[in-house]
Structures are given as C-alpha cells and as structure tokens.
Amino acid sequence: MLLIRHAQAGDREEWEGDDRERPLDERGQRQAAALVDQLAGFAIERIVSSPYRRCLETVVPLAGARGLEVEALPELGEEHQLVEGIDAVRALAGEPVAVCGHGGLERAVPGAPRWKKGSTFVVAAGPRLVEALPPPA
To answer: Does pTM top 0.85 for this prediction?
Structure first.
C-alpha cells in the first residue's frame, strides 16, 4: 500500500471557504504531477482518497496515468480519519492500493514518523512501514 499525504494546499487560516474545498496551491500541483514518476515502479490497482478537494487533486494525475478512478472514502476525511480512517488504512495495508489522506493518518502505521505534505509511505501488511518517500518537487 502507498499511503500518501495530500500535497501542499496553502494556509488553512488564509482560506475563506469551506476547508473541505481548499485546493492545492501551485507547489502542491507540481507535487501531485511529480507523484506519477515517483510512484511509477509500484503496482497500484486501486486509488482511494479522502473526499477533501486537496486530497483528490493530489491523486488525480496518478489515477489518470494509471487509467484508474479515484474512490472517495468518507472515513478518510479529517473529521473521521483518526478512528474510521485508521481502521480503513490498516485493512488495506499490503494491498496494491494508493491511499491519500491528511496528517494524522500516519498513526495507522506503528512506528511511522510524522509525514510531510506530499510524502508517501510504502506499507506492508501488518501494517508495517517499508519505506518513506520524500515529497516530490
């Protein structure tokens, strides 16, 4: 499983609308596009994401490159992730799936460091951290 934290999305405090609709900023868009090459060597048969716009936008280029649809899972949204989201990630660990979510979701993987926006954890069944990939771009 590839556990991806959404790319840069600007400052939460400066966003005036519904935070669920906050988009990626320019750096985040570059990070999302660069994930396609960074993750090219990994098998991915499914892509799931928080329904928040910044998470969806992070994995749309990857989905397009792989010919996959992005499945929005409500349990990966910020308001649910620390219980239902963690359970979902643990259930998917070790499968050929990319999961995009918010900071805090890394708690699903014992021993995982805090992750930066746009970074990816490669996670085996268990769940067990195999590798931490830095944010691209």
So the answer is: yes
